[in-house]
# Entry
Amino acid sequence: MRIEYDRDTCIGMFQCVDEWEAFEKNVDDGKADLAGAEETEDGVFVLEVPEGEEFEAEFAARVCPVDAIELYDDDGEQVV
# Structure
């Protein structure tokens, strides 16, 4: 499972932080950070969801009020 996070779209509600520890508050920027993610050329942060953390990652994606977080299964199908 892969999570993609568009940090530019983030408005800093930090709801994802409450759902999954991989998201961290960055109060200086007013946005969340996705720990361990790699930034792509188009500015999206990508991270393979560790085994056993799929549920938390899904909830983090679902609670984002601006849909800055997308979750994909192992076949590349978007879950959230």
About this structure: The radius of gyration is 11 Å. The first helix runs from residue 15 to 19.
